[in-house]
Amino acid sequence: MTASSGWNTPASAAARPRTLAVLGDSYSSGEGNPPFDVLTPRCRRSNQAWPRTLATMEPPTTVALFAACAGATTDALNESYKGELPQLTQLRRLRTAPDIVTITIGGNDAGFSDVILSCFTWKCFWDGKDKRERDLITRELPDVLSANYAALKAAAPQSRILVVGYPDIFPSSQRKNNCKWLSNTERRQLTNLNSQLNRVIRRAAADADVEYVATDRALRGHEICTRDSWVAPIGLLPPARDLSAHPTARGQQAIATAVDRYLAADRR
Hints:
The protein is of the alpha/beta class. The chain has a single domain (12-265), classed as 3-Layer(aba) Sandwich (Rossmann fold). It has eight helices and five strands; from the N terminus they run βααβαβααβαβαα. Helix 5 (131-155) runs parallel beside helix 6.
């Protein structure tokens, strides 16, 4: 949908509360914080998800669309997922352009959830090497992400597009790690992969001329396996399995604060 097909130019934040559309995966849906919205239980959308927490901060914000869905890959932007319309279709169907659109995407494309569960059951990488994941992130994801961010910008040409990176969820040093299942080598591999993914996301956002918001330090000192963790522990059986390695309520608050600070430092 273009500007000529029914959307009005967003008013300034001073004139009315800003509006927010939320796209992406479990790192936007708030999967680590049950209970979830009863009308859309499969997407595991939490009332404590960071976008909803962001909406309670100043200036006042209304969540016009909450399309983020647990387990979503980039395919969910353009294809039906868990019985819902493609996320970009949902965005285009809004009667008024949102002031801000946020998105977290790419982690499931890279297969991070399977890697983390593998860490817990035996070891992170069956051959001890993370080459397959590194190659996927550096060779396949850049073009996919750039194309999808460009499609997102085209779907909401009058909105401010914020591509939100992933927080580091593993300890910054082995000294802080109290999980016996996570070796120092694996910890370094996982933190390096997340950094690599965020670099690819940042570059793809720049290629599509949309904004990137870093959250990698949002959970610093409170990662999984630390004494005061703000990340749900790993579990093998539902519902703990679904919550695994997702920020808890305090983690969601920390991410919301990081995004809010970005917005406050760069008002338009």
